[in-house]
Write a structure and sequence with these properties.
The protein is of the alpha+beta class and 132 residues long. It has a single domain (2-131), classed as Orthogonal Bundle (Cytochrome Bc1 Complex, Chain D, domain 2), CATH 1.10.760.10. The chain has helices at residues 2-40, 42-45, 63-67, 69-78, 102-112, 125-131; strands spanning 79-86, 89-96. Strands 1-2 form a two-stranded antiparallel sheet. Strand 1 and strand 2 form a beta hairpin.
Length: 132
Amino acid sequence: MKSFVFASFLFVFACTLASFQQNDLLKASMNRGKEIFAANCATCHMQNGEGIDGVYPPLAKSDYLMADKTRAIKQVLEGAIGTMIVNDVKYNGFMTGFNLNDQEVSDVLNYIMNSWGNTGEMVTPAEVKAVR
């Protein structure tokens, strides 16, 4: 019984430690992503991620963005064209893809998907590479 309790304690400790490490990795990625966002995305989507009604869709509290991580990765890499419905508003436009490496795509998406009311899973460079 004692070994079970000890093993359970070690498991909980390891999970807690892994969670703290994941949070630190996400925070670092988001800090880098904030700079990438400011340089590449804020002109259209605005510094606060709210976009411009009817012209550039919001990233803040965006149902479209948060619905599909793979699609989000593809759109950063390849851009987007055509109709999309974001938070019940129809947008029909064009977004260019960006020449960013896997880490940079991961960082900017971690920033966008965890800011302005969004809460998402961490995007890893390996996930970006798999989509690329």
